[in-house]
User: Fold these one by one.
Assistant:
Number 1:
Amino acid sequence: MSTVEVRDLVKHYDKVRAVDGVSLRSADGEYLVLLGPSGCGKTTLLRTIAGLEQPTSGQVLIGDQVVNDLPPRARKIAMVFQSYALYPHKTVLANIVFPLKAEGMDKRAREERARWAAGLLGIEHLLDRKPRQLSGGERQRVALARALVRQPRVFLLDEPLSNLDAKLRASARDELKRFQQEIGTTTIYVTHDQTEAMGLGDRIAVLESGTLRQIGRPIEVYDDPADTFVATFIGSPPMNLVPRDGRLVGFRPEHLLPLELGAEDRVTLKLDVDRIEYLSGDRHVYGTATGLGEPTRVIARLPATVLTPIEPGRTYDFSIRGEKLRYFDAATGRRTDPP
Ligand SMILES: Nc1ncnc2c1ncn2[C@@H]1O[C@H](COP(=O)(O)OP(=O)(O)O)[C@@H](O)[C@H]1O
Ligand SMILES: [Mg+2]
């Protein structure tokens, strides 16, 4: 087990600022998720930690030791990529032992290690098969076992579930999390999928354009976003933002409720409803909010327990508890104090 840290890390490719000054530190045994849109620098950051890229400036530390000058192998890190190429003509067992063979471990010892890894991932019964005889999820586990046999200090996983279909992804996510809890290895997990990040991460580091916007527990980045980027990137539907007096007033869709359900400390608005969607029992009510700030399109998410009849084409009184409002600077998008 080990900590991972980057200090003022910069990686430029000519004019592209792929990573533009990022500092963060994982705890020992932590599951840290790097979350951000495509092109924000997640893969570059991970490859730099792994030693596959040299930083333009800044430091990479593993277990509090600066490893900038260590080659990838010496960093004792295992990386699983989005396209985890398995050798198609080798059996699962041969695929898993491959890195140990390359290191010169003897046959008996490496097969023992492979069986241990296969046992942890629940794939012992597949050891004699070829990759084409496996499902996507099983191939994924073989790739993880192959990374695991080297008993790395740190796992780096780059969108490892993105090749799986949605349903399989949910179960594979669950398995990955349980597996990591069992072995307790520090894991840095890259994804552009905020649902995956919220479900997996002990903490989430939100990146945009090569910079770190916020790092915190899932509930922190959700409830207390540091800026409007985080507020709208996390959450589905995203946080509503209404311009008012030179600021933006933010509130989550589930906090916008029909007036009679509101508490004492509340702000009210009128919602011109134009559309309603039903999603897993919730009603998503789309409309234009007036009376809070400038007229703005917003979404209210009403749980199935809210029975108030609502129809498109009509206007309703809604309210939000004052404590649920978040304020942002309209120019910079940064969080500000309430007025
Ligand atoms: N080898 C490279 N040469 C030039 N530009 C690159 C290279 N690798 C990545 N980039 C650029 O760096 C930025 C970050 O890319 P990447 O780290 O792959 O983002 P992500 O993984 O978040 O999608 C992108 O603009 C990408 O085009
Ligand atoms: Mg990537």
Number 2:
Amino acid sequence: MTSIFDIFKIGIGPSSSHTVGPMVAAGRFLAWLDQEGLTGEITRIVCHLYGSLAHTGKGHRTDLAVVLGLAGETPTKIDPDLASCLFNTVARQKSLLLAGHVTVALDPATDIVFDRDTPSPGHPNAMRIIAYSESGKVVGEKLYYSIGGGSVVSEEEYVGGAAGAALHNISGPYVFSTADQLLALCGSENKSIAELVLANEAALGPLQRIETKIDNIHSAMMDCIDKGLSSEGVLPGRLGVRRRAKGLIRAATPNPNHNFRYPHQFMDRVSAYAIAVNEQNASGGRIVTAPTNGAAGVIPAVVRYFAESCSDASQIGVREFLLTATAFGAIIKSNASLSGAEVGCQGEVGSASAMAAAGLCAVLGGTPQQVENAAEIALEHHLGMTCDPIGGLVQIPCIERNSMGALKAINAASLALAGDGQHIVSFDAVVETMRQTGLDLQTKYKETSQGGLAVTVVEC
Ligand code: SF4
């Protein structure tokens, strides 16, 4: 089963597959070199990026991510405020302190190659890292795929058909890969979805430690919202996008001098939370992939809405929310994809919305059938959504799209709670439809910035 800690990972912006994944891949390359005893022979490193990484990697800071990973930094530990500084030092010196103890030549401008001509050898997000000796001989070479949500597999793992360790990283007592199986388990074990997921996690370690880790993820999400709500200015990149979360939350906060408010204005608060997260993401800040960086605002926004606006909300409820959401993210990851480069934005914001809808429905008292219905409604109404970020930046349409995903999630949970859990289209059918639709989508709509808004909107 996919662990909650594989679905929700603390990292940095702006992209899980283009920033977090490549950093993880570079770290895996370092570990492999070390394990093979090759590190001492290396004098130069080169990294080739293919497919979507080549097309939108510049805007997603893939070059920075590779440098950070080779410098021994990890997405969880790197201080986002120091990341650019470290990269600029490497770019100036044209060398890097590999694994903290061997200096190798690496000029990011020429040694990190955005190869848009060579087709990606497998998954659309591919990268090949090559280490050379003084004489120019290849000391070590590895091909990695960044398969979405910050998960990485090597060529061997990918060809082995497993995409393996990254997809199925815990083995608990309750095995399911479809929503049908999940509902059957809920019935036979008389447990909620969150209880099943927690039992699987508990197979790995003490319950208290798992709950603390979930609480840390929640705290990181809320910190990200707070930081985004208090930040102003223009986001990095040539689009000149102004941050708006701070102004939005100010306008959405009730003014005692004006007691009339339209009911729909509650939506602005939720939007402000989602936008705050994605503005932080776009600026390279600390982020929780949920389940990706581009879609990182949806779940925190709905969790915050639950915690602030729903009676009986509690920390236990927040854990139940995130555990329930995990089950649906895991099912999508197993049977379709969470990656915009594979299936378009339906797999990112659509998945996040389905997960949030499931989580909210569960904590508001929904039965497993109603929870599955909520996830199904949210995902169904994201089917076909393309990924076409303007300028390759995770800003337009990504930031605003997260507010739409969050509001759809609340709507979906509410619709499901109004029903009895009986419905015609199953979650599994929608996931399969998303997979097939993703296959049919042309490459230009899958995080390559070669179609859609990315070409119809003229950049100034
Ligand atoms: S359009 Fe959607 S899938 Fe594409 S980068 Fe933005 S959030 Fe991710």
